[in-house]
Amino acid sequence: MARSLLATIIFLAALQPIIVLGAGDAAARLTAQGKQFEERIFKIADNAYTAVGYSVSNVSMIVGDDGVVIIDTGMTLDDAGRIAEEFRKITDLPVKAIIFTHAHGDHTGGAAAFLGESRPQIWAHENFGSEARGWVSGDLTVQKMRGARQAGFRLPPDQRINNGVAPVRYPKRGGAVFSSDDKTSPTHFLRGDQQSLNIAGIELELVSSPGETNDQLFVWYSAGKALFAGDNFYRSFPNL
């Protein structure tokens, strides 16, 4: 049966048209696609806002009674600082909690830009960061090589128009790319499949949702009927 299924897949694949794009065509399509990464703050629901285009990943804010919740924090402190400045134009309430949808640096690196005088709760999945541990302990580099090819990191600047699912960013060479301050490490963890939170009067549900990583979680904001899916869903391709 397996051989029959494989033969069917190969046959169907052979029926698909092959499209070969010239360099100019590809550049034009990427340039057009890049319009979705223009820097904007979207109001996605009552009291909920998302910053798009400022960093590699989106950064969101939900405004509560006496504070705000930040969901993901962008890649660098520079990116996050500009987002925090825009968010402060909406409200100057303090950050009561930060939620990481997963441990990738483009979602966690800017966390320090959202810290105030008092340390907020920082929530993450109990498997936070586990994806990389085996690769690091084994001194393996294939994952980094694959990621660089997938996102076009090694293309020359004139060809690296965007990263397909994100705007291009060129972090400083030889310096700190992501925030590594202990103050931005998670303090609270989602253990199990689901957990309800009430922070600053904001009712949230954290839901374990392994997908791009095994430490991925969804954030469901029921009052605004908004789901913050992290990297389990891309506009260009669902990553579940």
Describe the protein in words.
The structure is a single chain. The protein is an alpha/beta fold and 240 residues long. It has one domain: 4-Layer Sandwich (Metallo-beta-lactamase, Chain A), CATH 3.60.15. The protein is built from six helices and eleven strands. It has a seven-stranded mixed beta sheet with strand order 1-2-3-4-5-6-7, with helices on one face. Strands 8-9-10-11 form a four-stranded antiparallel beta sheet, with no helix packed on it. Helix 3 links the parallel strand 4 (68-71) and strand 5. Mean pLDDT is 84; it is low at 5-19 and 173-177.
Q: Tell me what the CATH architecture is.
A: 4-Layer Sandwich
Q: How many distinct beta strands?
A: 11
Q: How are the strands of the biggest sheet laid out side by side?
A: 1-2-3-4-5-6-7
Low-confidence stretches: 5-19, 173-177
Supply the CATH class.
Answer: Alpha Beta
What's the overall geometry?
globular
Query: What is the terminal-to-terminal distance?
Result: 27 Å
Assign a percent range to the helix content. Answer: 25-40%
Supply the number of structural domains. 1
Q: What percentage of the residues does DSSP assign to strands (E)?
A: 15-25%
Q: Roughly how many Å is the radius of gyration?
A: 20 Å
User: What's the helix-strand series?
Assistant: HHEEEEHEHEHHEEEEE
- Total helices: the number is 6
Task: Output mean pLDDT.
Answer: 84
- Helix/strand-derived category reads alpha/beta
CATH superfamily: Metallo-beta-lactamase domain
Largest sheet descriptor: 7 strands, mixed
CATH level 3 topology: Metallo-beta-lactamase, Chain A
